Amino acid sequence: MADKLVVAILGATGVVGTQMIQCLEERDFPVERLVPLASARSAGKTVRFNGEDVTVLEATPDAFDGVDIVLGAAGDAQAKELLPEAAARGAVCVDNSHAFRLDADVPLVIPEINPEDIANHPRNIIANPNCATIIGLVPTWPLAQRAGLKRLIVSTYQAASGAGMPGLRELERESRVLAEGGEVGDTAPFAYQLAFNLIPQIGGFKEEAYTSEELKMQNEGRKIMHMPELRVNCTCVRVPVMRSHSESITVEFERPITPDEAREVLSKAPGVKVVDDPANLRYPMPLDTSDQDLVYVGRIRRDLSAPDGVSALTFWCCGDQIRKGAATNAVQIAEHLL
Ligand SMILES: NC(=O)c1ccc[n+]([C@@H]2O[C@H](COP(=O)([O-])OP(=O)(O)OC[C@H]3O[C@@H](n4cnc5c(N)ncnc54)[C@H](OP(=O)(O)O)[C@@H]3O)[C@@H](O)[C@H]2O)c1
């Protein structure tokens, strides 16, 4: 690849696309030219990049002519339609949608876990995992390497912005309307009012009454960690938090591991910050983890219900799902491509 690259962002006006532009700037990614793409509705708007206004173009196949790297931040349908067009024109695409994640010839990558998979991308497409999967696996992986992974039991507490700009705006709107004593009315994109509430459904219902979001943790986790038999039980909940997903994770290991050993492993793990000081009421919270790239881990303790009492741990983690769960992870993959 050349020293400086033409980088297109498909979905440059959304929550993830906007963050990608910021990440490219912050990480000093060698951009020769930025090509922000979105729907026809946004064509002609501008985005700010490195102190300049750059005009948003309608995402059409020809818009990818001359592009080296595409960062995909649109929905599944746009990704399926447009990224093969970009790839056919020679661009390498790093996509955030679900469209290609489980395809055998598309690597699914968290750079802290399986960077070696990036090299093999025969379709010129590399997939970014689901945001809750990234936030959960970044701290789970180093523990798995120390003690072997048998089973994961996960509950997620996912921010409104996980549903994109419409989700963010809806939680803002509901909070404002309720504070003024009004009725919330239509709650789209959520099925119910989210402010002052929790919604135990993210995605559609699939087999055995699990949601699509819950199955991603299992299916994507198996692919990323190369553990096809991994057992995962996941419950995903939407919570009235603007930004940063939180997760309660119980890990059953092959071998014993103590909370102190886990803290030691995690204190050296890439992408992780241990915040675990119950005596001083210090633990990860979404307000503290927003707008930065580390996954904070705390509340590390033995699972007292484990059969042998020593081979399972429970912990709590929070991470900014727009950054590490999406934009930063994609830019990290692009950095590996360089
Ligand atoms: N939000 C998260 O926390 C998160 C985390 C991980 C992965 N993801 C995934 O990342 C992707 C983007 O999510 P998001 O949250 O950023 O959504 P979003 O805020 O709703 O943004 C969607 C983007 O897609 C563009 N778009 C819509 N229709 C289009 C079309 N026909 N052609 C071209 N562009 C079109 C939109 O452009 P307009 O402004 O012109 O409509 C906008 O830029 C999704 O696949 C999502 O599942 C999201």
Automatic annotation (TrEMBL):
Catalytic activity: L-aspartate 4-semialdehyde + phosphate + NADP(+) = 4-phospho-L-aspartate + NADPH + H(+)
Membrane-traversing stretches: none
Molecular function GO terms recorded: aspartate-semialdehyde dehydrogenase activity; NAD binding; NADP binding; protein dimerization activity
Residues binding substrate, per UniProt: Q158, R238
List of catalytic residues: C131 (acyl-thioester intermediate), H245 (proton acceptor)
SMART domains: Semialdhyde_dh
Protein name per UniProt: Aspartate-semialdehyde dehydrogenase
Species annotation: Parafannyhessea umbonata
